[in-house]
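Journal club side-thread
Mid-discussion, someone asked how the predicted structure for our own chain would compare to the paper's figures. Pasting it here so we can look after the session.
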Amino acid sequence: MSSWQDARIELVRAGQARWRPLQRLGPSWFHSRITDFALWYAVEGDGWLRDRQQKIPLERGTLLLLRPDGQYSAAQGPQERVKISHIHFNFLDTAGRRLPHKAFSLPDHCRITSALPEAIFTRVVRLYRSGLLRDERAAHVHEVAGALIRALLHEMQFRQITRTDNEPDQLPSPRPLRMVDKLIDYTRIRYGTHPTVAGMARHLGMSTDHFIRRVKQETGKTPRVIMVELRMNEARHLLKHTRLSISDIALELGYDDLFAFSQQFKRQTGYSPRNYRKISTDNK
């Protein structure tokens, strides 16, 4: 078999989907939709995916590689709806021809409980949605997305080679994460939803008041202020470096109300989103 590490990677599409309650996916669903290689990452959920005889839990941290010739079925569990981030891609040779799906030996799944896969999936989804695949910068977008996808495949392969039944999913951190570090990770991986201070506190098993005090001790700021700053920093990046509409950027960051997003952005930067984009473009 060939080495996938020597092939070019072509991004086909990327996105995120939440399943309907008790949803089931049969082989016909997979055959019509998995026409390329696909990486799935379970952001939330309670369910399973079966690959021939192997049944894999679909729970937070599960990273899967699906093949177009795979025999899959899947189901939604009764407790929590599954939310999947997905990336579809192909391997190409040096002439740009698509390589056969059976040409490579690749890992099929692993569990990664660190922030690595969520950060990579978020970045690739934004690259796909940016519109840059449709202009002269498409080659560069494929190159960047390919490097990120390759990093996930390397991580899966590394875990497959080194993992034993007694090893943890994640190496211990050299130091405990500060509350603000956890807050930043929590907010970044939930762009597109409505993360709240109370939700973050519950996620950590703490009272809201205690969590607020801890963050203020570390930073001098409240968690809400930090969450807003993170979103506005991301909004500035998207306005400056993508062609997403302002309403799409607002939705990307979890704002259902475009007016509320624009007002908050102006309070943070002194500019409306439209004026900020114009100034940033003029200064390039």
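Post-session note: The beta strands are 8-18, 24-25, 37-44, 46-51, 54-59, 62-66, 72-76, 83-92, 109-111.
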